[in-house]
Amino acid sequence: MNHCTEKDQIFEKMKLTFKHRQQLIHDAIKSNTVFSVFPRFLDTKGLVLQDFDIKFGTETASRLLEQWDSLKPKVIAEAKTLTSNLHLNSLLAAAQANGQNQEYEWQGWDSDMSSLLLLAFLLPPSAGGRNKSTKISIREAMDYIVQFHKSCRSLTEHVEKTEGLQPHLLAVGSAKNTIHDFYIVLDGQLLPCQAKSSLAAFDKLFKAYFVFSVSYPQCLNAMFTFIQTTIYKIGFGTVRETPRVKDLRAKLLN
Question: Are both 217 and 188 inside the same structural domain?
């Protein structure tokens, strides 16, 4: 498989080795070898999506992309009830822009990414670790979701500087609202995204947590749990949820 050049053959062989790969990923001793054993993750787009689809099925895999257009206005409306601050207001303006307000779109992320990041305000970071009083800001927590990378700069340099922020999306372009390529940064490696839209790139980021059996960042556990149980409906009723997660689901779905 490492020497295979036909894309269809790569996907077929990765499908046939799915069970072996999952055993490797869940082996505490060997899990860090997954990219050396299956290096096609690093040069073939779509393999993460295929593994997630095998694991959970097409219906589950398609839920975020199918539902976000209807959920987004509700997320924006709920975020408007929060205490106002400069960063929140900027995200709200960009989330509502949809190409109509060039000023906000030039300054920040596009509408879909901005609305997804609003979830971090609705389900803010909680203290974690041994020192329960330690709590990072919402703005700092967003680095665990996506970071912008100017297309003229070195990708390797970014990976080296963000070793503790993995996995996360790396959005490469001339500006935050003009992204040419998305990557997932994981274990010091760059996984190329087939997606050209921010929503599809976030969809792949979420799926990477399950494909590679990675825990959510503690500071965004509530946000990712909400997406898992409410949108993808994975583990609904069995996964532990905070009262805020349950409350937000009730507000958005009722």
Answer: yes
**Structural domain that includes position 25:** 1-44
How many structural domains comprise the chain? 2
pLDDT, one tens digit per residue, over 53-64 is: 999 999 999 999
What's the CA gap between 175 and 239, in Å, rounded? 38
Is the backbone of residue 149 left (phi > 0), alpha (psi -120 to 50) or beta?
beta
Q: Which helix (H) or strand (E) holds 208?
A: helix 198-211
Residue of 40, 35, 45 lying closest to 5 (CA atoms): 40
Q: Is the full-model pTM beyond 0.85?
A: yes
Question: Which residue, 214, 213, 242, is CA-closest to 230?
Answer: 242
**Average pLDDT value over all residues in the chain:** 89
Provide CB contacts within 8 A for 59, sequence distance 6+: none
Q: Which residue has the higher pLDDT, 102 or 208?
A: 208
